[in-house]
Amino acid sequence: MSKSPALTILKENVWTNNPIFVQILGICSTLAVTNNMRNTFIMTMGVLLTTGFSSFTISAIKSLIPRKVRMIVQVLIISFYVIIIDILLRAYLPEVSRQLGPYVGLIITNCIIMGRAEGFAQANKPLISFWDGITSGIGYMLVLMALAVIREWLGFGSLFGLRIMPEGFTPWTIMIMAPSAFFLVALLLWFARNLQTAPAKTAGSPPPTGAQPAPGPAPAQAAPKKEQA
Amino acid sequence: MKKDSTLYVVIFTFVICAVFVSLLALANELTKERVAANRRFTSQSAILSALGISYSDPADAAVKFAAGVSEITDSDGSALYPPAWRGSTNGNDYIITQHAGAGLWGTITVMVAADPSGSEILGVRIIDQNETPGLGGRITEDWFLDQFRNLATAAGKIAIKTGAESGGGSLPPGTVDGITGATRTSDAMAPIINGALLRIRAISDGSALRADTTNQGGGK
């Protein structure tokens, strides 16, 4: 492998092994908090930091943790960071803390954090575990922000609270409610999975490079057309 | 000591819990003052806005609050639960009370300022709600709350108009427009505000200030 492990992990966690698209983790929060970009950003920031720091901590003390109580210790460390975030929000961003309400506390139950702790931090060095946690958080954040853009745009007619749709625009109420997240997540998943698998079938080149996959599928599509003609 | 021996597991779990819990306690202790100040400001700013007094920052709010508002106590001298205040603005005296009731998804807590007879609402502010964002959650928006500014009540009560005919046209006295698409939240607001008005009248005639009645509900 020519790439540095840090880059490989970044690509893995943001795209090829994205927690939402591929691992289907953290879906509950995806449904609950993505109707407003500001709250989504702060919540995913919380998840990102918690995943990074708890992976770091777990990795740093992994040789001391007895196997029998390993999961209890992981939950303890994860909830420690979540409560710290909750305390900081209450002290320095009271308005945001009030709006997010119980969702901050619910970061503890986000499966991504424990998934990274179990799947990566247990077996790797602290710094790279921290990076793994942060990049997983970034992968999660990007997907949730994409959803939030669509939902806030159509549901409120605004982005980050700034109105962008004309005055006469009728908000799509469904976009604010949880059900819209169900079908938007599904559509996004479908779209991303298609992107991920399509080039692998034809050329085998990695999908997110932009220029490369474009010529790949084009001749493949053109060929059968000629046969039909 | 073997890592899987019971003794090690017990000691390790104990130590790691002690370490993390102490750190949390420390973080909590360090931010305690700030969190309390934030909470105080939330309540003071709601009271001042219900009274229609403007303020520029938390310090200004605290000064104006101290100058114009005083907490009401019962005959024993202890604070009411939920809390209530006397405030004056433009030479008139008002009673402000905190009141809570059921919304669509959760409890809605409001701050209502009205004259002691409950015949005119001076202002309403929402302190806490869990209604649908963008729909019922719009009860916190100014256009909705401004409808309550100097609203004369009809026989000590208000009503919120919902349904197809709401919006446009003149409203009967003591009535405000509900929120389109949030009928259930709008419907829930009227009993909450009427409950607050009832309490304001009970405070002004003294029946809510007897120590034996006010200590129900575990107030401090």
Report on the structure:
Chain A has 229 residues and is mainly alpha-helical. Chain A has one domain. Chain A is built from 10 helices and 2 strands. Chain A has a two-stranded antiparallel sheet with strand order 1-2. In chain A, helix 1 packs parallel to helix 7, helix 3 runs parallel beside helix 6 and helix 4 crosses helix 5. Chain B is an alpha+beta fold and 220 residues long. Chain B has a domain of 144 residues. In chain B, 40% of the residues lie in helices and 20% in strands. Chain B has 5 helices and 8 strands. Chain B has a 6-stranded antiparallel sheet with strand order 1-2-3-4-5-6, with helices on both faces. In chain B, strands 7-8 form a two-stranded parallel sheet. In chain B, helix 1 crosses helix 2. The N and C termini of chain B lie far apart (52 Å). Chains A and B meet through helix 4 of A and helix 1 of B.
